[in-house]
Amino acid sequence: MGRIVTINSNKVQRSLDTRKLLHKKLIEVGFDVDYEYNPEAELIISIGGDGCFLQTIRDYNLPNVPLVGINTGHLGFFPDISPKDIDIFIQSYLEGDYITQELPLLQAKVTTSDGCCNIFGINEAVVKGDKSRTIHLKLDINNKRVQNFSGDGLIISTSAGSTAYNYAVGGSIVDTSLNVIQVAPISPINTNAYRCFTSSIICSHDSIVNVSPECEFENSTLVVVDGLEYNFKEIDNISLSISDRKIKLLRTSNYEFWSRVCEKFL
């Protein structure tokens, strides 16, 4: 069996055209190409934007195989490669001229009256009310009550997710070399009954963040992980922590986090 590369793309025409070209060029240099997940593959290539990249990780069940992205979307924070640089990428890959970045996953353990469910994400978990309603949440960090929250919800993000939804609500950008958890409020409300932080909280990587809805919200709480909504009945608690599981990203040899931040946001 030859060297195998798996390609996953969205259905946008530019992505499909890029997939066709990439397939041809990989075959020319001796690779076998699959469009379905193959555990024997040495590399997974996602063609699209950040959404497609995250979807690939979900579709392939958090693979141990390294991933690289070709950006045919908009922002493209995860995808490193431009379609016009496919030849350069293939040559660099063949020569081993790249770096591998390991990103730890966020684990959300949702406990309901029916049991527990574990959900993993690379960016963030959002706890919010359904139907865009205000929600009341109890926030504990390492078994210490930090606040009784009132507002639109809480975002619990990894360092990799600090440039996503977290950044949009005013959270801090965190270098991905720092393994931390960040908790950012969405439209917090301060009253006599609820005193909320208006800025984000940054915790060490071994912290346990617990979010539990007040009893009247146990059936009206949404958990959204990397943009995918999960509906649960009778939520008792959501425990969030950094998992031992990691995703491997292939990066160009000149990749540098703050250069990427400036390129994409400034």
Order of helices and strands: EHEEHEHEEEEEEHEEEEEEH
Backbone shape: elongated
Spatially, the strands of the biggest sheet line up as 6-5-16-13-8-9
Q: What's the helical proportion of residues? A: 10-25%
How many strands, what sense, and barrel or not for the largest sheet?
A: 6 strands, antiparallel
What is the number of helical segments per DSSP (H or I, 4+ residues)? Answer: 5
CATH architecture of the largest domain: Sandwich
Helical/strand content category? alpha+beta
Low-confidence stretches: none
What would CATH call the class of the largest domain? Mainly Beta
Q: N-to-C terminal Cα separation, in Å?
A: 46 Å
Question: How many strand units?
Answer: 16
Number of domains: 2
CATH fold descriptor of the largest domain: Tumour Suppressor Smad4
Q: How would you name the CATH homologous superfamily of the largest domain?
A: Probable inorganic polyphosphate/atp-NAD kinase, domain 2
> Any idea what the radius of gyration is?
20 Å
Determine the mean pLDDT: 93
Strand content: 35-45%
Summarize the structure.
This protein has 266 residues and is an alpha+beta fold. The protein has helices spanning 13-28, 50-59, 86-94, 165-168, 257-265, and strands spanning 4-9, 32-34, 43-48, 67-71, 98-112, 115-121, 124-129, 135-141, 144-151, 153-157, 180-186, 201-204, 209-213, 221-225, 228-231, 235-252. This is NAD kinase.
